[in-house]
Amino acid sequence: MKFHIVYGSMVSGSIQYNQSELSFDTIENEERLFTIILEDLYLGLDIGVDCKTVCAISGLSSPRLWKPSKIELPYAKDGRLTVNVPEFVQGCGYSYSGDWHICYDRDTKMVLVSKSTYETDYGDNCQYVKFLKNAISVLRGTELIALYIEGVNIY
Known about the structure:
- This protein is globular.
- By secondary structure, the protein is mostly beta strands.
- The protein has one helix at residues 118-121, and strands at residues 2-7, 14-18, 23-27, 32-38, 42-48, 54-60, 67-68, 77-84, 93-96, 100-105, 110-115, 126-132, 135-140, 143-149.
């Protein structure tokens, strides 16, 4: 599975956290065909009707499992996060491997979903794109390594 960035207009959706359901979902987005689940998390990237554009983030995620952290939002240009999935079945979920974890900054209300190596191994060779109104993805080559989500209020 390879991810790509297409700079320009972004998808119109906005991610929200529903504290009573302990879940993320995206509003104002298009129809979803299938989901790419971040390995051990119950969090997924939903793919739109064009069969390649990430149009939403959704899934269960309890704040009790989030690591408190200081998170700074990186600069990112607007665009689309796309993925190449050669064969898919509508309505199914596909696993994207990696040692994923979630950090939360209570002061900035920001969530960082990342591979465990991201905090020590990011840098100039990463690309950033704001692909939803309040989400930024980070790629290293064609590998997704992190997602930033703004405006997550859990308290």
